[in-house]
Amino acid sequence: MLNLERLRTLDALARHGSVSGAADGLHVTTSAVSQQMSKLEREVGQQLLARNGRGVRLTDAGRLLAGHAATILSQVALAQSDIEAQRGEVVGEVRLAAFPTAARGLFPAVLTALRADHPELRPRTAELEPEAGIRAVLRGDVDLAVVLDWSNKRLPVPGGLATARLLDDAPDIAMPAGHPLADRAEVGLEDFADDDWVSWPEGEFCHEWLMFTLRSKGIEPRIAHLTGEHHTQLALIAAGFGVCVAPRLGRGPVPDGVRLVPVRETMRRHVHAVWRTDADRRPSVRAAVDALRAAGRAVPGPAGAGPGAPAPRS
């Protein structure tokens, strides 16, 4: 009989591509991963791992069994969802992730609502950028992630995931108070062709969106500073070191010396929740989605989705 936890270890190795990555994903030591794999090899009577330089790779038998392991684990997750749904109680642990401004703008209200409505539910939260959040949901590291894309650049959502639109977020351009355009009622991105930009770190979805959007307008961006924290971006703007895109969700206090001007174009961040379809019937996941949608509707002004927000889609 194949041991489920050892199959879970093999699945993590296949998904992460290394013993250390599997250990991080499973929240165990690398020694524990190696021990589980040694026991699994003895169970099946075949070598599942082979040396590959200083790392390891799956053998043909390892890849074959890993494919079955993914199917088995998916079926186990589906069985757990069905049992939870049959019981109908919102209990246990639910793991949520969100990109930073969504975590700041939505999670306090979501956690408050879940604590009031479902006192036996234990939410756990983490900050993850959109692409990392989707990977974490696919791996089973989190149950649900809040992600984003832009009206002119969509974030691919793989099969096997369900999504629900939470809200649309309208960004502004942040600039020093003494900037020549600071008194404008609205601006376009092309108005800042000669300005330095403060952007998100390279490789993050929003940084790639900014580069794509400016280049589509014939502007080669002058990226002067990279930082993931919006508060840090605004502090740099207040000190006169460029301009930045400043979304409204989770923005918080704006430093003195910064002016925020709306963008002329219909430019929106679309904020979604994503979760695995095999967890769709779990009451804890449904409760978290409902709380997120309510929090999204409550966001004031143009950042809120309003009562007409689209229903969940899968």
Q: Mind explaining what this structure looks like?
A:
The chain is of the alpha/beta class. 41% of the residues lie in helices and 22% in strands. It contains nine helices and twelve strands. The protein has helices at residues 4-16, 19-26, 30-44, 60-87, 100-117, 130-139, 205-216, 230-238, 283-298, and strands at residues 49-52, 55-58, 92-98, 121-127, 144-150, 161-169, 172-176, 196-199, 222-226, 244-246, 258-262, 269-276. The protein has a five-stranded mixed sheet, with helices on both faces. The chain has a three-stranded antiparallel sheet with strand order 10-7-11. A hairpin with a 2-residue loop joins strand 1 and strand 2 (55-58). Helix 1 crosses helix 4 (60-87) and helix 2 (19-26) packs across helix 3. The chain is globular and about 75 Å long. The two termini are 35 Å apart. The model is unreliable at 304-314 (pLDDT under 50).
